[in-house]
Amino acid sequence: MSRRTVQAVPPEPVDRRALDVLRPWLPGRRWYPAKGTEADLSVHAVVPFSDDVRVLLVRVVAGDLDTLLQVPVVLDRRLGPTVVGTLPEPGASGDEPHVLDGAHVHDGAGHPAFLRAWLAHADGPGTHGLDPDSPRVIAGEQSNTSVILAGPAGGGILKVLRAVQPGENPDVDVPRHLVDVGWSHVPAPLAWLVGSWTTPSGGVAHGYLGAMSAFVPAAEDGFELACAYAARAEPFDDLARDLGRVVATMHTALAAAYGLDPAPEGAREGSDALAARFAWASAAVPALAELRPSVDQVIAEVRALDSTGPRQRVHGDLHLGQVLRSQDRWFVTDFEGEPLAPLADRTRPDFAVRDVAGVLRSLEYAAAVGGLTGPTAHAWVSSARLATLEGYASESPGDEAARHRTQVLLRALELDKTLYEAVYESRNRPDWLPIPMAGLERLLG
C-alpha cells in the first residue's frame, strides 16, 4: 500500500451536525448498507481537506453490520442558486436543499471542490491535465460512486469507495499488479487515495478511500451489449469467444502477479461447499428439493477428483456487467468483489473457473433480458456458452486430466451460483425465478 496517506481526525461539532442534516437522506442512497432496518449512525472520524470540504467516516451499526461509510461533504456557503448541475446532492430528487449554518450541504463525491482536494492529495502516476470542474457522475451504481473527469487520452474515472475497510483494496491492488506484468485488458490505474484512521478498538488502520483509472472511451457495457444482441436474435458467439480468451489470459496474468496456491489433496472442501449450498437453497426454495439426486451426482463427481489443482487469485465476481467492449477489445473492471465482505474472503485464492462460471450464468440472463424465450433462447445461450468455453480453452493449455478437472469443477461452480440465484430471485424478483430454474435444467437435465 502507498505510504502517502491522509489522516482522519476526531470529528468536530460541525461534522456531527452535518450528519444530522444528511441522516434522513442517507437511507435512500443505493450504496447505503443498512436498508430496511434501524441503524445507529455516528461520525467516527473525518478527513478535513478544508473547512468546507470534509470526508466523514460514518460508522453504521445495525445488527451484525458494523462498517465505516465514506460520505464526502461540501459546504457551499453561497446563498441562492447553487452549482450542483447534475451532482448527486441531497436536494436533487426534488427535496428542499439541505442547509447547515447557512450553507448548502452537498454529497461531495461529484463536487468540483471535493475533486480538486482529492487530486491534490492522491498518489499515483497520472492525474496531470484532469479537469475536476466539469465532472460527470455515473448513475445507477450500487456499492460506490464513480465520477468521470475529462482530460488527456480520454480522461479518468474516479471510484469513491463508500464502504471503507483496512488493507489493500482489490480494485486498486489487482489492476496495478496486472499492468505490472504487462496485461493490457484492464483500465490503467492513474491515482489512489489512502486514509489512516483510529479503529473503534483504539488501533490504527490504513485503507483506500478511492481510486482513479483511465477512462475507456466509446465503451459498451458487456451485459447491455449481450442483451442487444439477444434482442436482435443475433449470435453473440464471436464476442463470447474473444471474452473467453481474455478471461484465460487474465488468469495467466494473475498467476504471474500473485503466484499459485497449491490445492490440498482431494476435493472434499469443494464438494462440501456445494452440498451446503444445496441444503440452504432447497430450504429456501422447496421446489429445488426434487433436484437432489442430480445435485448429489455432481457432488460425487467433485469428490472423485484426485485433486482440484492449484488455486490462484481470481476476479471473484466476474459477469458481463464487469466487462467493457471498446475499439474491438474487451476490458475487465471492478475487481473489488462484495464491498461488505471481509477483505480476506475477497482476496483468498480460488478456482480460476469460478470466473468462467460467472460469465456463463450472465449469458443466460442476457438472453432473458433481451427477450428471448423457449428454444430460441436455449439455442442462443448454448451457442454463446460453447464459444466462451472454446475461447477460454484456447488460452488454457493442459493435459487430459486437467481438462477433465476443469469440466467437473466448472459444472459444480456454475451449479453453486445458479442455486444462489434461485434463492435471490425467489426472495427479491419472483418474476425472474424462471431464469435460474432454466439454468438448473440445463446443468442437471
Characteristic terms for this protein:
single chain; 445 residues; alpha+beta; Aminoglycoside 3'-phosphotransferase, Chain: A, domain 2; 2 domains; six-stranded mixed beta sheet; six-stranded antiparallel beta sheet; 39% helix; 22% strand; globular
Task: Provide a descriptive summary of the structure in words.
The chain folds into 2 domains: 8-214, no CATH class; 220-444, Aminoglycoside phosphotransferase (APH), C-terminal lobe (Aminoglycoside 3'-phosphotransferase, Chain: A, domain 2, Alpha-Beta Complex), CATH 3.90.1200. With 445 residues, it is an alpha+beta fold. The protein starts with a strand and ends with a helix. A hairpin with a 2-residue loop joins strand 3 (53-62) and strand 4 (65-76). The strands form 4 sheets. The chain has a 6-stranded mixed β-sheet. Strands 2, 3, 4, 5, 6 and 10 form a 6-stranded antiparallel β-sheet that branches. The longest helix has 29 residues, at 400-428. It has 12 helices and 17 strands.
The CATH architecture designation of the largest domain is Alpha-Beta Complex
Q: Which fold name corresponds to the CATH topology of the largest domain?
A: Aminoglycoside 3'-phosphotransferase, Chain: A, domain 2
Tell me the major beta sheet.
6 strands, mixed
**Termini separation (Å)?**
48 Å
- Sequence of strands across the biggest β-sheet: 1-11-12-9-8-7
Number of strands: 17
Strand fraction band? 15-25%
How many structurally independent domains?
2
CATH superfamily of the largest domain: Aminoglycoside phosphotransferase (APH), C-terminal lobe
Q: What is the CATH top level name of the largest domain?
A: Alpha Beta
